[in-house]
TrEMBL record:
Signal peptide: none annotated. This is Transcriptional regulator, TetR family. Residues 51-70 bind DNA. InterPro entries: Homeodomain-like_sf, HTH-type_TetR-like_transc_reg, HTH_TetR, MT1864/Rv1816-like_C, Tet_transcr_reg_TetR-rel_C_sf. It comes from the Bacteria. The lineage of its organism: Bacteria, Bacillati, Actinomycetota, Actinomycetes, Micromonosporales. GO terms for molecular function: DNA-binding transcription factor activity; transcription cis-regulatory region binding.
């Protein structure tokens, strides 16, 4: 399976089907079908080999259909990034403002929505300044800040540094997990492993007597 990743941060079923044969879709339905087909293609071949022509074949539509909806490959991946940031925002919101749960939710999102995750953080693949991307990324960033907020009470600059630290840790963990870089002793459950790591890093520890 192709692997890819990384960049800037700051919807909920795993898509894994392929639609074949000529079909007639409602305009909105076809867009969703094309996005789901893109997720499947990305999981199989990665972004470099993805093409609108192959996407049309997978969806069982005319070769012109993907271009009609997305314009070009960058437009398709821009739409996928928007969907991904919105899914991430939903996942973080569901954590209820708890930093540990938000960190685990971030890792779960990366594992469950790998194609989205690895496109979202490679802005060279899409149009990161697109208004919809900017808005969706801001929503995800706001949810991450909400999770850190309960543990960060210093000045604004320190709170922002805490957000960056939290994001770096959970994003780094997710990226290492997806790349298969962890040793076997870490186990096969990404959420359980992430919970151990995040708890160690973010649980308050008493200061030493010498401090």
């Amino acid at each position: 399976m192709a692997r890819f990743s990384r960049a800037v941060i700051l919807s909920t079923t795993s898509y894994s089907f392929r639609v074949t044969g000529p079909r007639a879709y409602h305009h909105g339905d076809l867009r969703r079908v094309l996005l789901r087909a893109a997720v499947t293609a990305l999981d199989e071949v990665g972004p470099a080999a993805l093409s609108l022509r192959d996407l049309a074949r997978r969806a069982g539509v005319s070769h012109a259909a993907p271009a009609h909806h997305f314009g070009d490959k960058a437009g398709l991946l821009t739409a996928l990034a928007v969907e991904g940031f919105d899914l991430l925002a939903e996942a973080l919101r569901a954590a209820g403002g708890d930093l540990l749960d938000a960190g685990v939710a971030y890792v779960r999102f990366a594992v469950d929505h790998r194609a989205h995750f690895e496109v979202m953080f490679r802005p060279e693949l899409y149009r990161p300044d697109d208004a919809a991307v900017v808005a969706a990324r801001a929503r995800a960033g706001a949810e991450l800040r909400a999770g850190v907020g309960g543990r960060s009470t210093g000045p604004a600059e320190e709170r922002e540094a805490d957000v960056l630290a939290a994001w770096s840790i959970v994003h780094g963990f997710a990226t290492l997990w997806l790349s298969g870089a962890f040793p076997e002793r870490v186990g096969a459950d990404p959420e359980a492993a992430a919970r151990v790591v995040i708890r160690r890093l973010f649980t308050s520890r008493p200061e030493s007597a010498d401090s």
